[in-house]
Design goal:
About 60% of the residues lie in helices and about 0% in strands. By secondary structure, the chain is mainly alpha-helical. Helix 2 packs across helix 3, helix 2 crosses helix 5 and helix 5 runs antiparallel to helix 6. The chain is globular, with a radius of gyration of 14 Å.
Amino acid sequence: MAQAQSLYEKVGGEEAVAKVVDYFYEELVLKDETVQHFFVNTDIEKQKQHQTKFISFALGGPKNYTGKSMAKAHEGMNIQPEHFNAIATHLHDALAHYGVEESDIGQALEKVAALKDDIIYK
């Protein structure tokens, strides 16, 4: 019996995830006045590379993410639930923009939601 494709494979691998991440930041996050301030002093190209590896891993791809833990990466940012939800919505919209099915987006967002406690109020 053939093994089911991971979500990562289904969306097209790292190259496809990188396109989603580009769109996520350039068209959504950095244009959203409620969350863009979190990225003012961020090397956005480096951030995109980390995010591509992280999202690839979250979608069942290779574990190439070697960045800080979620709690450490968000330390001192005081991210509130509405900020977290805005970013999750942008991720949803970026995945949808590239034709990822709603059920698959839901699966990806469940993985992100599982990290919420490591991200908010830090």
